Amino acid sequence: MLTILGRQSSINVRKVMWTCAELNLEFERQDWGMGFRDVNTDEFRALNPNAKIPVLLDGDRVLWESNTIMRYLANRQGSHTLYPQDAWQRAQVDQWLDWQASELSPVWTYAFWSLSRQSPKHQDAEQIQTSLTAWTRAMSILNTRLEQTPTYATGPDFSLADIILGLSIHRWLNTPFDRPVFEAAQDYYHRVAARPAFIGQCAGFP
Fold first, then answer.
1. Inter-CA distances, 142 with 50, 64, 133, Å
2. Phi, psi of 39 (to 5 degrees)
3. 87-201 has which fold?
4. Which of 47, 57, 70 is nearest to 167 (CA)?
5. Domain formed by 2-76, architecture
6. Per residue of the chain (206 residues), what is the pLDDT tens digit?
7. For the residues of 106-143, what is the DSSP string, one character each?
8. β-bridge partners, 30
9. Where are the domains positioned within the chain?
10. pTM, whole model, 2 decimals?
């Protein structure tokens, strides 16, 4: 039995849960972080010295970094659709996984914590607007990509890239602000959000 350590409201925890569901992997999840068990303890840091969620326990194996966990699970199950073997196809999936982590996710942080989480530490109007402007610019890049692909982000097959990009658009659509309409992104979102694995593991959280 796999064990995922982390609260379900975390987007990084949900992408691991969604991956497990796509692979028909049974798992249990334990609530850690922000309102639950404290990650800033010796117990948790022994598993992840960064004190961040999620952490995956696979028997006596311990793994952190959510995108790495996703790749590991797909490789563990031999899923060449979620994570292709072909070098070029795999690079396309990795490109969008890395882009989401390095370019998209960082720019939404301030606005999301302000508008969705109502964080008292994230209420500077100028920083909110800066975050929203950068977020919109990044989403326009993603929308342009999705205008060019008929079904999923990297081609005709659903992949790991679609898990994190689908969750990212879910966050975009569920954060309360006056956002531009990106039609390709919305159409794509409706396709991926209809998947049973998304419905079972990810719906109901921003």
1. 29, 26, 15
2. -85, -15
3. Glutathione S-transferase Yfyf (Class Pi); Chain A, domain 2 (1.20.1050)
4. 70
5. 3-Layer(aba) Sandwich (3.40)
6. 899 999 999 999 999 999 999 999 999 999 999 889 999 999 999 999 999 999 999 999 999 999 999 999 999 999 899 999 999 999 999 999 999 999 999 999 999 999 999 999 999 999 999 999 999 999 999 999 999 998 999 999 999 999 999 999 999 999 999 999 999 999 999 999 999 999 999 988 87
7. HHHHHHHHHHTS--TTS--HHHHHHHHHHHHHHHHHHH
8. 5
9. 2-76, 87-201
10. 0.95
> Tokens 């890395």 correspond to what residue?
98
Residue closest to 172 by CA, chosen among 133, 143, 139:
139
Query: Distance of CA 88 to CAs 81, 85, 93, Å?
Result: 13, 9, 9
Q: What does the DSSP 8-state code read for residue 180?
A: P
Q: Is 8:33 a contact under the CB 8 Å cutoff? A: no
